[in-house]
Specification:
Number of helices: 26
Helix content: 40-55%
Oligomer: single chain
Strand content: 15-25%
Number of strands: 17
CATH superfamily of the largest domain: Hypothetical protein af1432
Structural class: alpha+beta
Distance between the termini: 34 Å
Number of domains: 4
Radius of gyration: 27 Å
Length: 753
């Protein structure tokens, strides 16, 4: 669970060998002759933005660390992704400390420790830090020792015992199950317990080469699942409440405090200040054109330098392999990364790899190979490896092109055909609401069939009526066109943008999870908020976003309502922000059909009964239940203590095309129990974990509906959806020993809100 420094990377420019830099012109000159061989050129999304901005990020580190910012700069040079992770953790911990009203000295120590707790990554060999896959036990041990290196590096220049104690105990587990640390449990420094939670959450919600980013809800459930063992359970609950706030706004507040109120003399009381402003290079117009071209190519394009490191991984490569560019760039290329095999299915070893051959011989090659596709199945590809040579014939690296040679039409092409046939909105020339409603069902079915993620954004211009009333409807139309341009510019192959009504837009994101969709929405939001509107005297406008990902049991209606709930939450939190909801496909807890127990019941119309458990306290479980009720438009029939009865009108998929597809009303009975699992069953005073047990049963309101052939499957879908919303799994075996159970009469105020 804890963050692995070597698992996060950022994209960078191609690196050369020796003192010879690699010019982008060399890459492009070799690539230019191949452009006519590429088929489709489609639009692509944007890269992950910095925490605040590149210049501001550097200023924040300098004012917070003073002379010690040189240590952070060394970490940036070694591994920029780990440095970015450390800054995000520090800003979040600072905001959390402000909420907890910690004293100034304690807050300062936590901020400094958070920024430097991973500086020991400098001592991790590149072969481990940039490895394109999971680490073996020996490599993991090297990374674990980097935490000790962090302490030794900081100890040489820091005389604050509080900072050193925090850095020392960040890797410690709350229950003392990880050996080698002096303290455990509540005796651990508060800062160490906070940083451990925040860095684990940041790592889980960041893309890695071996695992895509989790949704916020899924990551939060993982924290609760490890509460009491790896993390302080009380602090996990507090962190869950902190996440309800706008994270971008919290980071801005902390950044303003650092830039405006920190005293340089106090900051440098431990070290000597020597701030040298960094020179940020502006990309040339040619470089922007070249980057846009590469990212819009349908085929996969990979740049690999002479040292074997991946320096570019375009969106075509992401589409074909399912591996994000941010998680693979700067890692060592190896055929095992994609399970490359030859025409006979034999694995291609490194000496026979086209990249190795191209770099070694300086001769380009064309081969039919197979690689592991995004679904895990082999995909036939035409592979073109081209060496990149300097004017003096020194080999600088190689370009690797993959063209999908499989006979099947890709998901993106099918979705793109739907996009091209869409009925357009006359003002914006994007799909209208009727076409969105028609495409949405097919879109979800295609992704569910291929078991791929997809996401839905819904956005609404803030205070748009005021724009029309103040500047006129022509100004309003121009504002709408500005937002539409940004949405269309963020499209990738297979995406669909539609005007849902007035100033409200929706965007279906093909093959895109919750985290990636939220990043794209955040970039659109930020860009629009900084864009002057000519017909509004140069003033900008803002937009709010709700984002969600398809999850088990979803229908088009529940997915749209969940995104709309996220949008309403964004509006309620002050507008001009992005809120994501939902657990995503990786929240699915697959069970064999036998796991759904069909017992003999007292009522003949009862269909399914299960005992479920979710690792979150009952308060959070009820909040998730409220989302389930809202998105399924369930009717709360009864609340009696810990018992809730719901009625759900379930419509047959396909929008009631036949007379036999009449709606079925399901009655869902839920009984909630909160349990505290004690580590020592013989000692009730020992620390424990809170979890929620739910007795779930579903039946038809009318007994005659139970005899219909499809009603059991539809009831199962309701159960699957309920489990997805509450991140619940079926209880296995007997109840755990040492569990104190209590059925609280607290459901009424939470559900009635």
């Amino acid at each position: 669970m804890a963050n692995t420094p070597g698992s996060q990377v950022q994209s960078g420019q191609p690196a050369g060998t020796g003192d010879r830099p690699v010019s982008t012109d060399h890459w492009m000159s070799e690539l230019g002759a191949l452009l006519r061989e590429l088929e489709d050129v489609t639009s692509a999304g944007a890269v992950l933005p910095p925490v605040v901005s590149e210049q501001t990020d550097n200023q924040l580190v300098q004012v917070r660390l003073g002379t010690a910012s040189s240590l952070f700069s060394a970490l940036q040079c070694k591994h920029a992704a780990t440095a970015g992770h450390a800054l995000r953790v520090a800003l979040t911990c600072s905001a959390w400390a402000l909420r907890m009203r910690l004293r100034q000295e304690q807050r300062d120590a936590i901020e400094i420790a958070a920024l430097l707790h991973d500086v020991g990554v400098i001592g991790v060999p590149d072969r481990i830090l940039l490895k394109p896959g999971l680490l073996d036990p020996d490599e993991a041990a090297v990374v674990a020792r980097s935490r000790h290196m962090s302490l030794e590096i900081i100890r040489q220049s820091c005389n604050s015992p509080e900072i050193l104690d925090i850095v020392e105990h960040v890797p410690a587990w709350y229950d003392d199950s990880r050996p080698g640390f002096r303290l455990a449990g509540p005796d651990l420094p508060l800062g160490a317990r906070m940083i451990a939670i925040v860095e684990a959450f940041d790592s889980m919600t960041t893309d890695h080469v071996y695992r895509p980013a989790m949704s916020h809800e899924r990551a939060m459930t993982e924290l609760f699942d490890c509460a009491g063992t790896q993390f302080d359970p009380e602090l996990v609950g507090q962190f869950a409440e902190l996440l309800d706030a706008d994270q971008a706004e919290l980071h801005r507040e902390v950044a303003q405090r650092w830039l405006r109120s920190l005293d340089p003399e106090l900051v440098n009381s431990r070290w000597q200040l020597n701030c040298v402003p960094s020179q940020s290079s502006q990309p040339t117009i040619d470089a922007l054109f070249q980057a846009k071209l590469l990212d819009n190519m349908y085929d996969a394009v990979v740049f690999i330098d002479a040292g074997g490191q991946v320096s570019l991984w375009n969106h075509g490569a992401e589409r074909l392999t399912g591996i994000s560019g941010s998680s693979v760039v700067q890692r060592q290329w190896h055929p095992d990364l994609l399970n490359v095999s030859d025409e006979k299915g034999n694995p291609v070893d490194e000496p026979d790899c086209p990249v190795t051959c191209a770099i070694r011989s300086g001769v380009q090659s064309l081969r039919r190979l197979a690689i592991r596709g995004r679904t895990g199945q082999p995909v036939s590809v035409d592979t073109h490896a081209i060496p990149v040579l300097a004017p003096d014939r020194t080999t600088l690296g190689a370009i690797l092109l993959f063209h999908d040679a499989s006979s099947e039409i890709s998901l993106e092409e099918r979705c793109q055909n739907l996009h091209e046939k869409a009925t357009r909105d006359p003002l914006t020339q994007v799909a209208n609401r009727a076409e969105f409603d028609r495409v949405h069902e097919t879109f979800l079915a295609a992704h569910q069939q291929q078991q791929l993620p997809c996401s839905l954004m819904i956005c609404d211009l803030d205070r748009f009526k005021l724009v029309n009333d103040t500047y006129g409807h022509q100004a309003g139309d121009e504002v709408i066109k500005s937002l539409t341009t940004l949405l269309k510019g963020s499209c990738r192959p297979g995406d669909l943008v539609a005007r849902y009504g007035g100033e409200e837009f929706v965007m279906l994101c093909a093959d895109c999870d919750n985290a990636a969709a939220a990043r794209r929405a955040e970039q659109i939001r930020r860009t629009l908020s900084q864009m002057p509107q000519p017909k509004m005297a140069g003033r900008p406008v803002t937009v709010s976003f709700g984002v969600t990902e398809i999850q088990p049991g979803d229908t088009p209606e529940t997915m749209l309502r969940r995104a709309d709930r996220a949008l309403l939450t964004a509006k309620a939190k002050g507008r001009n922000n992005v809120i994501q909801l939902g657990t995503g496909r990786r929240g699915e807890l697959a069970d064999p059909p036998a796991a759904f127990r069909h017992r003999k019941k007292a009522r003949s119309n009862q269909l399914i009964e299960q005992v479920l458990v979710t690792p979150v306290p009952i308060k959070i479980a009820i909040e998730k239940l409220r989302g389930f009720v809202a998105d399924h438009r369930a009717k709360i029939v009864k609340i009696d203590g810990n018992h809730v009865r719901l009625e759900i009108d379930d419509k047959h998929p396909g929008r009631l095309r036949r007379l036999t597809d009449r709606p079925v009303t399901f009655c869902v009975d839920l009984r909630f129990e909160e349990e505290r699992i004690h580590k020592d069953p013989t000692d009730p005073s020992s620390g424990g974990l809170l979890r929620t047990k739910i007795q779930f049963s579903i039946s038809t309101r009318k007994n005659r509906d139970r005899r219909r052939n499809d009603v059991s499957n539809r009831a199962r879908q309701v159960l699957v959806s309920f489990r997805s919303y509450l991140m619940a799994s079926e209880e296995e075996g007997r109840p755990q020993k040492g569990a104190l159970r209590r059925a609280k009469r607290i459901l009424t105020p939470w559900l009635a809100r």
